[in-house]
Structure formats: structure tokens, C-alpha cells
Sequence to fold (376 residues):
Amino acid sequence: MIRRLLPSALVIAFTGAAPSISGPATSSDRVPGGADRGMPRFRADGALLRPDGVERWVLVGTSLGLGYSNATDDGVGMFHRVYLEPGAYEHFLRTGGFRDGTMLALSIRKPVNRVPPSRAGWSEGELAALELAVKDPERFQGGWAYFDFGRDARSARVLPRERCARCHAEHAARDNVFMQFYPQLRAR
Amino acid sequence: MIRRLLPSALVIAFTGAAPSISGPATSSDRVPGGADRGMPRFRADGALLRPDGVERWVLVGTSLGLGYSNATDDGVGMFHRVYLEPGAYEHFLRTGGFRDGTMLALSIRKPVNRVPPSRAGWSEGELAALELAVKDPERFQGGWAYFDFGRDARSARVLPRERCARCHAEHAARDNVFMQFYPQLRAR
Fold:
């Protein structure tokens, strides 16, 4: 019943442009709760550290089974939650734009059904993967880069452009962000 | 394509026990941001005021088309987001229980499909209704009461027991809360 996680289902949720590290990356393992709270943290080798507390960020959109191509089986696909880091959310509400350092997180869960007492519909199973989009024009060509932490990796490297960035650049409604799927953002 | 919002689809998400106001209600229009921040606010006549900023609360679960009876048409039902007020969320993480004053919010949205560039799956349309569950054993028989703000009502009265409370009392996994649908709560 559950469609396997297709690359196309991932690609639709995020993208920037050429997400290659544009120069020597610098260490920025900063103090949690300090001035850099809410900002992405990178290792010296350029890998992004998995942020803590994503489940407390602001949910901007949910979807089930989003994909690019017509479904070819009867599966329902995966549940997506897309979160915006709270500081970036407040910035967006004030300005309508995404500040440098903006992080969006995509959590991916398998759907489950017939969890008692439900007899119809779908709710969320356990976490399958966490992906991140980061805006940092000084670090990434095109401004944004994308990262896949899987279920529990503590750090992740930039994904190749074909995985996310191209589609976001071509199809996202504003600044590489798929506003069209996020009700409380598209209302602004 | 879109199944109409059935009472059964609502009932599944919330419920307490007999949600009648047990005595003369008192006014508690408290100062936002003060000591009562994160607590429900009632008018003198017992109506609950719609809380601000629910979209910043902690999402605990998403579902599509959850219902009690077998689906009778090919509609997919409604998207549900269930939020827990942040103070109550932190209390839950510490104790595994729901403090007095806990608020859970259910936002209901129609699903939309084929929003470009998607060609499969469902994302969220505009808000159809906001419902609230409030734990207040001094105020409500059975401990919990349920409220329906529709799309934009500023206050709401307690719903009759048949609407939500009975099913929550009978089927919710813990203290009238449908933990079984909320991944990051059921993990605790």
C-alpha cells in the first residue's frame, strides 16, 4: 500500500540553485542559545550539523504523496512536514523575504492507517528522514543548499544540484521556496 | 473529489468527558505574555477566547481523512494538524502528562491537488476550521472540554459531549488525548 520513497517525491519539496561550497568552509560550531541561535552551524569541513529542536519550529505546510509524475501505483506516498526556523519565520512575517541563514526542514514519515479507532484515512508513522534547506549566498552558489540527514545522521553534506536545487530554482514560487504548498506563507 | 467534512472526521481528533461548565464561570481575560501566557482565557460567560499564534505552537501530528467509519466515497477527507501549546509541550516532555490548562488545537484544511509543479499527492488548502481541547478539571466535568471556532470566530462555547468528548474518553490513548496519532508524543 505504501509507495516507496521516490526521488521525485523528495525533489518537489526543496531546492535552491547550485549547492556547491564556494570556498574553504570555516568552523562555526557556535554556542546554542547565543547570538547565532537559529542559524545553521557547519563543521570545518563544510558539513551541516543537524539542528536540535526542529520539532519546535513553525510548521508551514503538510502534504501527502506529493510528486512530479503521475502516480503509477495505488500507494499514497509519504507524509511531509515542512518547518521554518522560528527566527526566519518572524523575519518572513515582517519582510516577506527569507533572510540569510534561513533554514527550512522537511521531515518525511510513512503513512499508517487503521490505527484504532480510525477506520479511514492516514496518520503519521515514524520518522523516515530529515532534510534541510539553508540560505547562505556567501557559502553557496545560487544562495541555497540542501542536505539529507536520513533518520539520525548528526551531520550532512550538500546534495548534488540534481537532487533538489534545480527543481526549486525552476518551480518554487519565491526565492527557491515552494510557497505554493505553505498556506500561512502564501497568504503574505 | 473532496469528501465533505463529516462529524465523524472531527470526532476522531479530540474528546474529553462531560464538557459542561460546572459552576459560575469567572472572567479571566489575562494579560498576554504575563504569568498566564500559554493558558486558556475565558470570558465571564464561560466562552473560550480564540488563542493567538496557534500556528507557532508545536505540531504533534498530521493526518489526512481520518474517520471512524469506512470511507463511502472516493474523497480523501480533510487535512488535520494537531498542535500542543508550547508550555504544555515542555511539561509533557518532562512528566509524560498533560498539565491543567493544557491546550491542543486542531486545524482543519481542505486538501488540494495538482498545485504546480505537483502531479500527484495532496497539499493543504486554506483553513476550514479551528477547534480546541482544553484541560481544566475545576471548570469541566471529566477534565477536558472541546470548542469549535470555525474559520474565524473570536470565541466559542463548549461543544456537546456527543460531538467530541465521548470518543476521546473512550478511545484516546492517554488522558483523553489521541496520542496514538502523534508520533513525537507516543515515543515518550
Confidence is low (pLDDT under 50) at residues 1-32 of chain B. Chain B touches chain A at residues 9, 12, 55-56, 58-59, 61-71, 76-77, 79, 81, 86, 89, 109, 111, 115-127, 167, 171, 180-181, 183-184 (CB under 8 Å). The CA atoms of residues 173 and 183 of chain B lie 13 Å apart. Residues 7-186 of chain B form a domain with the Chalcone isomerase fold (CATH 3.50.70.20).
